[in-house]
Fold this sequence. Notes:
The chain has four helices and 18 strands. By secondary structure, it is of the alpha+beta class. It folds into three domains: 1-74, no CATH class; 91-168, Sandwich (Immunoglobulin-like), CATH 2.60.40.10; 178-329, Collagenase (Catalytic Domain) (3-Layer(aba) Sandwich), CATH 3.40.390.10. The strands form five sheets. Strands 13, 14, 15, 16, 17 and 18 form a six-stranded mixed sheet that branches. α1 packs across α3 (305-315).
Amino acid sequence: MLTDNNGATLRYTPVSQQLATDGASWRSYKLPLAGDAAWSRSAGAFNFAAVTGIEFHVDTWDTGFQVDLDGVYFASSNAVCSGGSAPLTVTAGSRATTATLSWPAATGARGYAVYRRAGTGPLAFVNRALGTSFNDYGLTAGTSYQYEVRALSGVDECISAVGTASTTTRSSAAGLTRVPTLDVLVAIYTGDAPSYTASEIASIKSGIELSRQFYYRNTGGKLNLNLQYLEIAAPTPNTQGPTMANIDANLAGLGIAPDQFDGVYAVGRTLSGCFGGFTLLGRTAGAFGTVCGVDYPTNDASINTTMTWVFTHEFNTPWIWRSRRRLVTT
């Protein structure tokens, strides 16, 4: 039973027995908020944006054991696509514990939802991709995986461009190197006055790339950053003081999902200061900065070396990479 901030309640009831009877197994339950043939839903209006309470009413009389609850979360279902859009041609390749997917851009897509099936198991949502490639982590060696990629036009809407691919991981990681890698979104707001020119954007990206190399080199290959850039043709949604609240809301409105990235770094001409150590979009680490810092020792005028220093300094929050690093086999 759910309760919202207005006191309204919503009750879901399973049509059939849902409990395991061995008294030891952990089970995962997926309950559609709209209800379905397996879960009936009570009538009435309800505000899902303001849930204040979740109750579980469980009858274990017939099974004779207690129920332990491990965790509850709300997640997008990424609705099944329908219609006649051209299919995506997905290419998949793998190593021992990782796989790489790629596909051509779908017209109107603002992102992609990636699903995975191990062997003959169920198809399960993995994560979203901002662009036309995706790295999957934590796979089992010597295992066949099938992937499905769905193009999204917004936060949850599928635009009917779907593609599939399969790959089998190597049976051994011998000869491969495992490198902890963070997926980092670099959001560049180009709508401030004067707007960034194409050469300025290229210079910013080159400066951040130097920072990526700095991290990799000075950690002895123990930390790599997978940088993904998002140029947003809008003014920086900045607020005075060290906060990323408006940037958080803006990115969510653009379809960036919670925990889609390990970190977010924002760049904008009107950002007030340079700060790090934020949490936004779920457990995603956040930082921002544009003009603070000192020069980086290089004579290449095409690289924004101030950005190199600022990114390295503000993104260098230890909990960012200690808590959510992923092992990429290369």
